[in-house]
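User: Sequence in, structure out. Go.
Assistant: Echoing your sequence, followed by the C-alpha cells.
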Amino acid sequence: MDVTGGDRGDGAEDPQTDGPRLAVLFWFYHEPEICAARLRHLRALNPDTPIYGLFGGSLSDAAAIAAQLGTLLDDLYVYGEERDPVWKHRHGDQLIAAWHRDRGRQLVWDTLVVVQWDMLVLRPLAELFGSLRTGEALFSGFRPAAEVADWWGWLNPRNPERVVDRNAFQNYLRDRQGYEGPLWCCLFIVVCLPRIFLDRYVEAGHPEIGFLEYKIPTLARAFGIPIREDHPFKPWWAADPQTKGAPDSDRLLNAVGADVPREIIEAEGAAGRGAIIHPFRQHFPSVPARTLLEGVFRCRVCDGPAETRHAAREMMFGRRDPFTYRECSACGCLQIETVPENLADYYGEGYYSFGDLDAEFADPALRGAYGERVRALLTLPEAEALAVSHADMRRPLLSLRRLDLARRPRILDVGCGSGRLLYQLRLAGWDAVEGVDPFLPQDVVYANGLEVRRAEIGAAAGPYDVIMLHHVFEHLPDPLATLRAVRGRLAPGGLCLLRLPLADSEACETYGVDWVQLDAPRHLFLHTKASLERLAERSGFRIAEVAYDSYDLQFWGSEQYRRDIPLFDPCSYRWGQGAPLFTPEEIDRWRDRSVALNAEGRGDQAAFYLEAV
C-alpha cells in the first residue's frame, strides 16, 4: 500500500463504450472499524470498481490506518497537512483537490463517486449512476440554496459566521469566476464528479471560504459542467419540510440525524427504496448489501444465491452456541450468515499457537539436528525425506516442497501464530523469512534473528517470493481483499500458498454440520475448489497446483461431534484420557481412507498453489 504521493498509473484514456468509467474516492478521517465495514460493503457490491482512499485524519495515525484498511483499498492517499478537524470538516474540498492534484490525475477513471466515510451504500454504483454521461456531474440533493436556507445549517441566516462565509464565497464567484447566479447546494454525501470538473477545480485555486456542501455544486455551475438534474436519485431529507413526507418512490436516499435501526434499513432495502442510508455508525452486519434489496442471501465470493441454510454449533470448546451457515448454489462455498460481534470470544486461550520457541530449542545440538531434518525434508527426494521426519513435523513442511524455496527464499507467513514454521525454516538456513499475525500480544524477535510482528498483511512491504497462509484464509472476513493484498506483494515468479479446509469433500458431505472442520463460528468461509478459482481469477491469480493433505481428524473429530463430544473435552480422542472412544482398527481404517481420499481429490483439506497472471 502506497501512502505517499507517487504515481499509480498513466491516466491514459481507454476506449469507452458504455458510459464513464467509475471509481470510488472513499473520504475518511477517523473511525477505522466503521470505515472497514463500509469498504467491505462497497467491495462486495462493486467488485470491479477501483476504490481509492483519501485519509484526512491525523498524520500520526496514517501508518496504522494503512495497516488496518490497506487491503480494502486499491490506493491510499494521505492528506499531508496537519489541520484541525473543524477545518477539514468545513473544507473537505481542499482535501479532494489535493488528492486530484497529487494522485487522481495519474489514475484511470472518468467519473469519481465521492463517498463520505459514514455512508452506507446499498446498491451497486453502476446501478445507481450507470446512466451518467462522460463529463456529467451528479449531486445528491441538488437544490437551489434559497430553498433550504431557512433550515439548512450551512446557510443558517441566524448564524453570523455562516453569513460571512457565504458572502465571501459569492464575492469570489463574482470577482474570480464571473458568476453572479444563485448558490446551489447538495447533501455532499455521495456525489459524482467528472474528471474535467476536478481539473478545473484544482486550476481555480479557490480560497478557504464557504462550505463544501455549496461550494462544489455552485462551482460546477460556474464552470459550465453539465449537471444531471433528471436523475431518479432523489433524496429524502428528514429535516426538509418539502420532502420529509415524500412518497416511497422518492426515498432513494434516507438522511436522518441519528443511528438508523437495522430493521428500518432492511425494510427500506427490501421494498426497493433505500439506496443510501446516513448516518449509520454501528457496525453493519457482514452480509452482502444486495441481500437487503432482493430478500435473497448472496454469496460473498461469487454473488450467486445462497439460500440453503445449515444450523451449526460451536463444538471445539463445547459452548454449543448456534450459528447459521449458507451454502452457495453456484460455487458451493459455505459461509457464516452473520459474523458475531463477539467473535474474539470464541478463540479460547488454547486456540492460538503461541509459545517460547527459544526455550524449546535452547539445546544447540537439538537446534542443529532439527534444522538438518527440516532441510532434508524440503530438499531430498520424497522417499528419503519421509524417512528422516515424523508425521507431526511433516504435515505443514511437506506443503513447502513444491515451492522450490532454493529459488524463492523470501517468505512471508500470514497468521503465523508464534512463528513455529518460520522458526523451523530459520534453523534450516532460510534467513529471509518473516511473519505477521494480528493476534500476537506483541512483536517477537527470537534469538536466531526471526521477527514476527503483531500486524495485518497490509503492514508487510515485500516483495516476497512466497506468501503463505496455513489454515488462516478460512478465518478472514474478506478473502478477495486478502488475495489482492498478497498479489500486490509478490515478486515476479512468486507463489501464494493457501492451506485450508474444503467443503467439497467426502467428510463435509457425510457429516454435514458435524464436520469437524466446519468449526463454527471461527471459520467464516468453507471454500470449494470452484470458489477458490473465482477468487483467484478476480485477484490476478490462477491455481497452478492442488495437493490434498487431509488426515484422520476428519473422521474421528466428526464422529465425536456426532456424539456431542467437543474437541477439547477431557475424554476426546485428541487427549486420550478415559475410556478410548475409538479402536485402533477404526483409526487405522480412517488413516487409510484419508490417504485414498487425498489421491482422489476428495480429502477435507488441501494446499493450493497460486501464481500471478
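User: And one key feature?
Assistant: The chain has a mean pLDDT of 83.
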